[in-house]
Amino acid sequence: MLLAAALASVAIVTQDQAALRNAPRDAAAPQAVLWQGDLLEIRGQRVDYLQVYDHRRERAGYVLASQVRTTSLTPAEAPELLAVTRFLRDTPGSEALGIAYAAAYLKAAPAGTIGAEPFDAITTMAERLARRAAQKQGSDATAAARLDIAAAYGVQFKSYAQGDAIRLCYDGDAARRVYTYAPTPEQAARAALALTRHDCVDPALRPLERAQIDEGRAELLDRLDAAAELPGVLKNRLHLRRAGVWSAIAYERARRADNGMRQAAQRAIDELAAVDKNELTDDDNTEYIDAAIRVGASRWAADLPVAAGESVRASIVTEPGEPGQTCVLLVDAQHGRATPLVRRCTYGVAWTASASTSPDGRAVALAVQPLATWRELWVFRAQGDGWTLDVLPPAAADPELGYIEFAGWVPGGDKMLLAREARIDGRARRSFEVTNLATLAADKQASTPSLLALFGKWQDPAWKRSTVSVR
Known about the structure:
By secondary structure, the protein is an alpha+beta fold.
């Protein structure tokens, strides 16, 4: 960190694009451009300029005294440094400057007086800085400069490729340090939220590694004191994060045939239901939609699988395939496991509890989940002398978050009801559809089922009872 060495007197740059000049004159040539949060060692003063040395750039020069704030990093100045840190923590656009003041406070304060607050502040500012920088996608010089300044104070970031974009995440070091200083419930909750973000789990992890990370995230979130008094906004954020984490765990346990999947899925559903929608901010409303999609994708894990048995009508059974695969078989009274009507294998989870056969026996719908945050609908249809299988995705785009589910059969055998919800390219979309079984195209669709007369008449009671799409 820049403050590792003991400096008699230092200056913290408070203005972006301040000039480090080679002489104490406005007309002197600039040697470097300084940014909020840059730390300079003071070596003298000439008129209204300070003579300084920039250790990060290894360059000496002069800077206007009005563009910096000076401190001697003594214990007497620690309370003032903490007060400024507290103010900047909640000032968007001043993250690098706030991190500089927090680092200065940690250098100035006696060891026995340091608590969790500066680390809580660094966590808040580093997370906000990462989000702001990611939105610029590397095209903004100010964002890049402030990331460099934060890194100079030991605040590190990780980047992950996400399609054509780059996901930037704070590595969470200060958040982990919060727990070593007897944090308040609010500080502990903010640290847990910072350390359990869904979008900051490495997408390149293998399934077992990802499962271990998710179990660890759940343990960290559950370590918080359930009896602690927290603001409603913070309680909501914890419920939403737990809902998303437990829905991922339910999927991972299902892939391992772990009986604990039902408890995990029910926990996810309960956490989503515990959210007080009156306490949702605009940003939290986005998180609420995402949490609902995550829970919706894995909700079938909470239901007991249907026992396979003989049936005159077409029905679904499963059997192991290649390592890691489940094979889905469509069978009836004349076509058993040995000679199924259709056989298709998948590396995803086939939720047999979701299987539904149309009243005329000529169509079957099955939920299949290939990813923790993406669930498809397999539609088997009798055509001529055979059967076909079509896979309906939540959206016609690369998966981010989404699910599609069967919502009911319409008498007559030519239509079924569907609900789907997905986030594609950052935008969330929820729709309810009356789908033509012959073409699998939507005849009608609406943003709420109450706008579709057939939903009012023929929606499946089991779907209405357990879906999270109607909330």
